[in-house]
């Protein structure tokens, strides 16, 4: 993707909560995974417990709404869906497919019967 048209990621984090390290780690993970598919990652200091990740102006994670911080694989999928929909995330996509509802519930045998 041409860098001039690539969406940018904006991570707004709470300075009072000292979440800059978490924000910078997430930025590094996204830049490593997406490279030039992203136009860049901007860290924006905020207050009041804010932790929001936006891609091209679209909120993909809001700590207040989702009630916590994102797991990196889930966040990468959400960023990919906006920034590079055709991109494969390899093992992250395969792990998500394995966790699909068609899998037996924990404590069940592969045939669906409860295990003893």
TrEMBL record:
Q: Which SUPFAM superfamilies match?
A: Thioredoxin-like (SSF52833)
Q: What InterPro entries has UniProt attached to this entry?
A: Selenoprotein_Rdx-typ, Thioredoxin-like_sf
* Organism listed in the record: Sediminihabitans luteus
Q: Note down the stretches annotated as region Disordered.
A: 86-116
Q: Where is the composition biased (Low complexity)?
A: 97-110
User: What keywords are annotated for this sequence in UniProt?
Assistant: Redox-active center
Protein name as annotated: Selenoprotein W-related protein
| Pfam families xrefs | Rdx (PF10262)
